[in-house]
Structure formats: structure tokens, C-alpha cells
Write a structure and sequence with these properties.
By secondary structure, the protein is an alpha+beta fold. It has a domain of 119 residues: Protein Transport Mog1p, Chain A. The protein contains two helices and nine strands; from the N terminus they run αβββββββββα. A seven-stranded antiparallel sheet has the order 3-4-5-9-8-7-6, covered by helices on one side. Strands 1-2 form a two-stranded antiparallel sheet. A hairpin with a 2-residue loop joins strand 4 and strand 5. The longest helix has 20 residues. The termini are far apart. About 8% of the residues have low confidence.
Amino acid sequence: MNKMLKLLLYSCVFALVLSACVTVQITNEAVPPTDVPEILDTTTPEPVEKTEDSPTEPAIPTEEEPEDEITAVPVVEASVDMGNGFYLTYDANLWHVDDSKGYNVLELKEDSKCRILYQFGHGMDSSIFGADSFNQVIGNTNFQITRWYLLSTGETVIYGFTSGSIYVSVENSNAEPLSDYCVEQAEQVMWMSEASGF
């Protein structure tokens, strides 16, 4: 450690002696020295944005649209009699009516496993499926929501809306899991239908 300090000290002394030996010649044309030494800016300047000013045309501000903004498709409302004069109102851009079995079923266009049925009750095997229930107010109607799920995975297979004599279920014939998107869109149908008075 001492050797390093001595080497550093000798280097500093040598640098000072060497700098004292350098002479600077000032010619008559040079500016005479002042008391305040001139400090040169050694930092790199920030780039300046070049703009073109047009004296005849004022600049028009433009609004930039966010890249992730999605243009909303207008809702095309339609209604279907699901049976016994019970109507569901839905967005025809997202749903279509399947009447191939002699009764009306709403099927999500993007997901054929997402089907809305009216008064379509059936049994469930309690060794395969579990159920959770909770209350949810949709518009002015209080519904009991029952979510049937696979015990093995917890995935939703039936999402049911019950209020008085109304029972609307979201499901498919093979008890395949429903996507979150399916359940969200089915809830939108219930909101639209409740607002229209079913």
C-alpha cells in the first residue's frame, strides 16, 4: 500500500514539474488576459429540434390518437323470445339465435361453447361439479347467481341467473368450461334485457 502511495505522490510531483516547463507564447493580436479565466464548456450540447416556420400558414395543432385505442363498434340491439313471452335483448354483432332444436338459444358468435338458455334446468353430478352462489343486482332486479364449476379445475361450466320465476343459464351441452369473456358478454345481455323489461 505504501508503495502505491509513493508512486502516486511521485506521479503528481512529476506532472506538476512538467506543467511548469511548458511555455505559452502570446502574440500581440491575442486578447489580453483577464482576472477571470475563461471556462470552456466540454459537455455535449443537446440536439435542437429543427422546425420550419412558415410565415404565411399558422401551425395547426394535431391530436394524436393512442395506439391502443380501439374504435368501438356500435351496439346493434335485437330481441328474441326465449319462450313463454320472456325476451332477451342482445347485441346482434356478438350473438346469434340458434333455433335448430325447436327452441331459441343465444350463441356467442366468437365462441360456440357459450350459449344462453331459458328455463333449462337439469341435474349436476356432485362428485364432479361444485356450486357457488351470490346475489347481484342487475338494473332494478335482484338475481341469485349460481356458478357451477368442475371440482378438478375450478373452471366455470354453468353460470345461472335466477330471480323469481326467471332462470337463465349460460352453458353448453358438453359441460365444457366457459371463458371469462363468455360470462362477461352474458352479463351484458342480462343488463340489456333487464333495461328493456325482459
